[in-house]
Amino acid sequence: MHALARLALLSALISPALAVLPASAQDIAAGERSWNKCRACHQIGEGAKNLVGPQLNGLIGRHSGSVEGYSYSAANKSSGITWDEAVFAEYIKDPKAKIPGTKMIFPGIKNDKEILDLTAFLKQYDKDGKKL
């Protein structure tokens, strides 16, 4: 069979299988369940306030140490981090390893899929706590 014909056949066989897969590997509902580990110290959504930790509205794209009214550690304020998905994933696995001296006392989330799901949940909220 000609290489182009094999590629067309392979594509015809794989395309229907891919159509049943979710568009994203992230599961927002699972991320919301994971959020339960965070809610003792953080809030998110409209009306979110700083608690033991800062509110997390608009986290992705935000500079570390920049939530108004929250008293950050010197380590967090001077870390120079801009939160993106990769940086957040590294941080949430082991906060004290990523930012030595952080006030955040959390053992971390080690499961990569859970981190992706939690990130998808957090990304739903803009800087004002409105769902996108």
TrEMBL record:
Coiled coil: none annotated. Gene3D superfamilies: Cytochrome c-like domain. It comes from the Bacteria. GO terms for molecular function: electron transfer activity; heme binding; metal ion binding. Residues 1-19 form the signal peptide. Pfam families: Cytochrom_C. Residues 26-126 form the Cytochrome c domain. Keywords: Electron transport, Heme, Iron, Metal-binding, Signal, Transport. InterPro entries: Cyt_c-like_dom, Cyt_c-like_dom_sf, Cyt_c_1A/1B. This is Cytochrome c domain-containing protein. It comes from Bosea vaviloviae. The lineage of its organism: Bacteria, Pseudomonadati, Pseudomonadota, Alphaproteobacteria, Hyphomicrobiales.
